[in-house]
Design a protein that fits this description.
about 425 residues, mainly alpha, about 0% strand, globular
Amino acid sequence: MKLNPAVKSFVSAFIILFVLYIGTGISLYIVPGANSDWAWPLASILVLGSDSGAMIIAITIFLLIIGGAIHILKETGLIEGVIQATVRRFKDRSFILMALLVLIFMSMGAFVGVFEEVVPLVPLMIILAKRMGWDDMTGLGISVLACGLGFAAAVSNPFTIGVAQKLAELPIFSGALLRFAVFISVYAILVSFLWMRIKKIKVDPHLDVEVESIIGMSVPKNAYVVFVALMGGMAVFIALSPFASVLRDLSLPFIALVFLISAVCVGMIVKRDLRWVGRHYFKGAVDMSPAILLILLATGIKHLMVEGRLLDIILDFMASNSGNLDSFVSIMLVFASVLGLNFFIGSGSAKAFILMPVIVPMMDLIGVSRQLGVLAFQFGDGFSNVLYPTNAVLLIALGISGVSYGKWLRFVIPIQAMMLVISIGWLWIAYQIGYGG
């Protein structure tokens, strides 16, 4: 029996995470000093009672609401109508559209710190990519990849730069000029990478069977007005969130609420049947529910690292070896350590609270500015978010797009190699010019 692409993607992601989960559990018995004296096989359940439990539950509810809302919007034909209008407008200007979308998604990550919130837009960008004659990987590239790289090439990301600088006792968002130069360089590389792919893998625009059944559906203009107005309000909210902590804390529930209201309003305008809206909402939420298992496995691995003292062992190694190394080598140790820990702990702000108390005295000890330590942390934290299979957001994006992790890995490895080179290059430049000194 041939599996549905989305099911196949979920199965492959589940297998990868399960193997990593078991491997991390086994390491508790092998690594000297690790703590295996607890019920580690239940880590994916016990994590719900940890400090991260509330956020995990919030993300789970967010995904279920978004799943139901997106399904309603697709079934009414509104999403396809918006995409078709975009295709008609940019039919002969595909480079401009691609470059503009990459800039928007990168800016969301770099200036606002959006990453999880991009999930609802991924399927829309994949449909748009197919209508433009691109492919599903390009759709993922202009959305989740662009947002992830923007998150790493951050200029004012409150969840990485903001938290790390606060912990390092630096002025919030100071040193932004060099980070803006980093953003421009990463943007140029990503646009070039995607444009070469578009030129190389140009496919004929086609419609999915599911879309063909609704393409001819007439959607009233007032449905579009409601949708655009609500999405505009959401965009304003997201743009203002870096400047107010209360807005950042409410970003997930607010986005979920906007999508829910949009779906219900559009569904009622088009169908005028609350039972139809409820039925299709439920189906969309059920289709999204397997993502919960992936989230629990991924966060369970982090819980194993913390409760099993594996994280403490890594931090002790960093602290004990930094004083014997050359200054730039110590900076590279910070970069490599954060890069490695990002495999297990995806949250940038969580890593900042864990690592900055170690990084700050290291920078003071070797006579390097704390600002450079923050930059090394930023690079180590971000770029690999769109590489590691332990990142739940990435796996959810792949799952709803029906792309296997193996296919994604082949697509993303070349640009990840470029990001590794550019990270080291910018750290070297920053070190040479005395950045933040």
